[in-house]
Amino acid sequence: MRRYGKNTDEDDIRQRPNRKGNRPRTNIRPKHDDAAEGMVLTVDRGRLTVLIDDVPVTAMKARELGRKAAVVGDQVSVVGDLTGKKDTLARIVRIQPRTSVLRRTADDDDPYERVVVANADQLAVVTALADPEPRPRMIDRCLVAAFDGGLSPLLVLTKSDLADPAKILDLYGDLDIPYVVTSREELENGTAVARVREQLDGKITAFVGHSGVGKTTLVNALVPDGRRRSTGHVNAVTGRGRHTTTSALALPLSGDAGWVVDTPGVRSFGLHHVDPSRVIHAFPDLEPGTENCPRACSHDEPDCALDAWVAEGHADPARLYSLRRLLATRERRDGD
Length: 336
What we know:
By secondary structure, this protein is α/β, with parallel strands linked by helices. The protein has helices at residues 136-149, 166-172, 184-189, 191-200, 215-222, 306-311, 317-335; strands at 36-44, 47-52, 55-61, 75-80, 90-95, 101-104, 114-118, 122-128, 152-158, 179-181, 203-208, 249-252, 258-262. The protein has 7 helices and 13 strands. Helix 1 (136-149) crosses helix 7 (317-335).
């Protein structure tokens, strides 16, 4: 039965009353053309500090973004109260496309991927030469994450007054990775800071390293006027450092010459998110040797061409050991 005539207008349409008194739902989202652009400096329990025109603004993620989360380094669009005054709160309504992403998982069995930093240009892998002892395989994992995420690696070796850096430098010498060696005395007199600073100017650099290597001490020296972070000590029994940095924080270098991002100290660097076939890209000294490998080579089988490549002196056997240890770890994960 037809209720309306051929030429109906809006007055003829019966509408169901809205008993709750609120506005009807719609799929049309506001464009927020007047949103201001800013950079996320830190994230703390759902509240984000965003730098907008040199003013730090506290903001929260808009519901319309769904599960998409902003991280330190993200370029975002913000609306609402942008004064930065106490007890004010703005809203992040857009997250711009990322140019690079540093990601990690808690371990290789953890499927939950954590984005640590976005839009960084390089990753400074900070490693102590002693107290605690260096962990080359941890360095390798960080290099894998850097290459996979689009960041250039930088190796920073601390505490050279306690141990000779030659062994570590020999291990990574053929990788053409820039490096800086520092000592405690050089940190105190500023010469080490100047050398590290040369590698950071004009870039956004994320600092990563396991606890106790002096990462936060170095960041505090690089940005003396910033938000200084507490530093810990190395446990004499376990040889491990104590976590003092609990969240990532972006700090500006003086003279608008770049940014440093201090990240929480880690005791493991999971690579669940990295495709095993891309792990070889973090070993440029080994990668040319794979040209003669059989198809779908796991790089840990009798016919792998990397054994001959290393035997001919093109790469250090320790590098091949590190690669195969990483791949073996991932294979055990895939088989579980």
